[in-house]
From TrEMBL:
Organism classification: Eukaryota, Viridiplantae, Streptophyta, Embryophyta, Tracheophyta
Species name: Paspalum notatum var. saurae
Protein name listed in UniProt: Uncharacterized protein
One GO MF term attached to the UniProt entry: nucleic acid binding
Domain Integrase zinc-binding: from-to ranges: 1-33
Annotated Pfam families: Integrase_H2C2, SH3_Tf2-1
Superkingdom of this protein's organism: Eukaryota
Limits of the Tf2-1-like SH3-like domain: 135-199
Amino acid sequence: MYQDLKKLFWWRRMKRDIAAFIAQCETCNRIKAEKQRPAGLLKPLEIPILPFAEFSYNNSYQASIEMSPFQALYGRQCRTPLMWEESGEREFFGPAMFEEAAENVAKVRENLRVAQSRQKSYADKRRRELTFEAGEFVYLKVSPLRGTKRFHTRGKLAPRYVGPYRIKKKIGELAYELKLPEHLSGVHPVFHVSQLHKCLRLPEDQISPEAIDLQDNLEYLEHPVQILDRAEKGTRRTRIPVCKVLWSNHSEREATWEKESELREKYPHLFENE
């Protein structure tokens, strides 16, 4: 945009003003793809302790059943160091065995921590940190779907974001809860930060966007509105009838050529007047 305008106009701080205008443009925010690194640093999972707690519970004596859950299920006690005295094997093991086992567990946990730290450093090199505050407005990333396959392009100007929506609160380090409208009541309102795009302009100052019929999985289906033209494509022996289709939420400049057979099968109402 700057390269085109500078051929006809000039004013002080022109490039900065154009960049600020584009950053606040609603159409650009909803349609343009981000070229930055994905948002949200890697959050490693906690080193699990549940298996140890489960093992301890299953082998502990329960007063209500007068035995351990393991014995109730299998009919015998679990073979652990606690049972070695009964089996006569205690003399082969001493305190050193328990100290060695504790050291091995601590070593395994430390190795897991080091591996997590190393993997996090690798992942964070290709990601960026992004945070929001409660009350801010953000755009929500969606996935467009087409009812038919195209011959050439895939619709670069299809909306990639909807909104903006207000942030209600932050959940954890990387998730946010949004205040969604009524028609999105079936969508879970908590999203990862990588699915959000910051809105630099208040919604009150924007023109209301045309409605997009979103599904519960944050996908929307584009429908053909009108057939603008017809032609035939193919090789010397095979000819394929095609139609130039005007899609919903798009202008005539974005119309695409589709196979007539697929259109007749999925959208027969387009050919009712023939």
